[in-house]
């Protein structure tokens, strides 16, 4: 059996399987982290974007499974089911990314903070829409085993096949990517304007809690906006490939490989973006704080007679003192700066959910 354009499947398959395996591991890590953090302290991940990120991670796990299944399918039924799975999970992931951008736009740009049942509609529309759109080519027999041994839309060299692929796949991906691009541009511009305004306000009132919360809100929005960049990075090569097909240009094997690698990396990219989420920073802060509490009790371990100055410096940059708690100044305790110099993100982000800024952070 040969891969796309007659190239040996062994090379193509090994790379695609490896990429999807990495993406599956990354998505599983994201899902386990979110579930684990929720069990530890659900307020840390009590945000719309976090729940959407979890849905994206689970969707990508199924995408990788369907993609590998599609690669090795040799029967008609297997081809149809695996192709439908790839289409469904691709559109669902794309719609979820669009929803992240839409939610950020509504909250951050248009100040829409009282949309009832908005989050429930997000998931219903995303998964329901993806299912309805992708089931149509299956019902009408427009996907299956092609003459070259691959599983995809049938008769893509004819107008009818092109129309089906465009209407139930490419058009939605294209619109999603374009919307994410526009939304990201608008949000980044708004962030730039607010940062300039915040800089002026901080010079007038540098230590107010409101200014600190506004600063954290901007940081959070900047990190969330990167989720909307994932479909842009993962689906753009697909546009180039399909455009070449429509123009009658036969794509070379490296381009076909790049398309599947980019699509397979969407879960990995999503995981990388998640690592910069404030929730991860909050958990890391709590971990450092707990270690600090433990080692302050056993601080004799860090006395000058048993540890070098280099070790003390490293510990100083890692541990966190509880604000307002008296500690002895001997040993490592005397080396630690105040709490606000070490890390202020946890309290500023999650400890103020009862005020207006805290409610906005939960909506993001």
Summarize the structure.
With 364 residues, the protein is mainly alpha-helical. It has two domains: 4-276, Rhodopsin 7-helix transmembrane proteins (Rhopdopsin 7-helix transmembrane proteins, Up-down Bundle), CATH 1.20.1070.10; 284-363, no CATH class. The chain contains 14 helices and two strands, in the order ααααββαααααααααα.
Give your account of this protein's structure.
- The chain is mostly helical and about 375 residues long.
- It folds into two domains: about 5-275, Rhopdopsin 7-helix transmembrane proteins (Up-down Bundle); about 285-364, no CATH class.
- The chain is about 70% helix and about 0% strand.
- A two-stranded antiparallel ribbon has the order 1-2.
- A hairpin with a 5-residue loop joins strand 1 and strand 2 (about 150-155).
- Helix 1 runs parallel beside helix 8 (about 255-265) and helix 1 (about 10-40) packs parallel to helix 9.
- It is globular.
- About 35% of the residues are buried.
- The model is unreliable at about 320-355 (pLDDT under 50).
- One of its GO terms (cellular component) is plasma membrane.
- This is G-protein coupled receptors family 2 profile 2 domain-containing protein.
- Keywords: Membrane, Transmembrane, Transmembrane helix.
- One of its GO terms (molecular function) is G protein-coupled receptor activity.
- It comes from Basidiobolus meristosporus CBS 931.73.
Keywords:
mainly alpha; two-stranded antiparallel sheet; transmembrane; globular; 364 residues; single chain; 2 domains; 2% strand; Rhopdopsin 7-helix transmembrane proteins
